[in-house]
Amino acid sequence: MRRPGSRVRWCVVASVFLLAFITIVDRVCISAAKQSMARELGITDLQFGWVFGAFTIGYAIFMVPSGWLADRYGPRVFLAAIVCAWSAFTMLTGLMQALVPLFLVRLLFGLAEAGAYPTASRALYNWMPASERGMALGLLNTGSRVGAAVGLAIATFIILSLGWRAAFFLLGAAGVSWAAFWLWWYRDDPARKPGVSEEELRHIRTGRSEAQTSGAPAERWTRIVFSRRGGLLLYQYFANNFTFFLVYSWFLPYLQQHFRLGAAQAGLFAGVPLYCGALGTWSGGVVVDRLYRRGLAARSRTLPGACGFTIAAASIVAAAHAPAVGLFVAAFGLAIFGVDFTVSPSWTVCSDLGQQNTGAVSGAMNMMGSVGSFAASITFPYLLQLTGRIQPYCYLAALFSVLAALSWMRLSSAGTAQP
What is the CATH number of the domain that holds 248? Predict the structure, then answer.
């Protein structure tokens, strides 16, 4: 018997929040382990740039196929399978003895992790009404930021205590545990989940057409992705990740080398931008939903996007000229707040436009984001080696952010809100 006034949908949000936390801890552990791994395996900084980049290559390759598979077969089984797969590759990372096998394992890790966010987004599309989708997707990405911030500190502690190999073994085991829970607890259709009240089921379906609730095909995802609005949406996510991925890759090593910080102190400083990002993703989701409930459907997506990139552009230029580590971290943290303020509207637009094809559309957007991540992982060390300064990278990231802010303004006229 269904309970009145149930809130099972928010338990789904909590589950994918935890997934995002684990996902990103798995991803950033290699940044915390970089110095120990490079020293033991004899890997140079430029070679490690390709190790960081290997993940993003795999991530990009399988992003759209994984989103399509999530749409076709449902998030329950598919998400459990890919979490087990990338957890296995996480543990394999702890067994590496040379550069080439490490590159290949990180490539496979990226292939497996590619489906995480498109599939989780499809799960939230199934369970959340349009009026709450911004907050839900914001919390999904908040989990990743908190996971990275806490994960850098946790990974650093484990590495200092047990060694870098043990860190990868423990994180892989955590992922397998989450997958087992998800397969047992989650259901693709809210109507099939015990404990969901009729009242909550009606609320979940609020604003959806009969075609959407009956499962009839929505607009083809390829038409959305290759349209004008699709191109603008994809570009702005490239710009987002070009700035943000530095935190997942080179930020901690840069703090250690440039400001002469110890591993523990650098780990604490490296977490600051990620906490700023967590605040950005959460507050962006709040703003999206509040504007939407006030009848400003299109602006609820486009206004936060344009504002976030404007903040990011100004802040990263300030970071480029910060004379001390505290000022540098604060300015870069504000830049990450800005780009992460755009995350909730980005993923919400994917759900608005994709509907039953949310997985494929969000996969295409996230694929372009991974291209930005790969570009950052390679561009940063090369520019730093070429010039000896961080300014060229910061100026390039600021330029991309300005163009992304303009892209959100163009999206406003292209039409984005079709919940």
Answer: 1.20.1250.20
Q: Which residue has the tokens 């459990």?
A: 80
Q: What is the pTM of this model?
A: 0.76
Number of structural domains the chain divides into:
1
Give the count of alpha carbons within 13 A of 282, CB side only: 13
The whole domain housing 295 covers 8-414
Q: What is the pLDDT of residues 19-44, one digit of tens each?
A: 999 988 888 788 788 888 988 999 88
Answer whether residue 1 is part of any domain.
no
Tokens of 204: 């979940």
Cα separation, 237 vs 161, whole angstroms: 37
Q: Which residues contact 134 (CB under 8 A, 6 or more apart)?
A: 284, 285, 286, 287, 288, 289, 292, 300, 344, 345, 348
Q: Is 285 exposed, middle or buried (0-12, 13-18, 19+ CB in 10 A)?
A: buried
In what helix (H) or strand (E) does residue 147 lie, and over which residues does it extend?
A: helix 130-162
Residue 419 lies in a domain: no
| pLDDT tens digit sequence for 53-104 | 788 788 888 888 888 888 888 999 999 999 999 999 999 999 998 889 999 9
| Residue 283 neighbours by CB under 8 Å, 6+ apart | 138, 341
Lowest mean pLDDT among 110-124, 145-159, 394-408: 145-159
Residue 403 included in any domain: yes
The answer to whether 81 and 133 have CB atoms below 8 angstroms apart is no
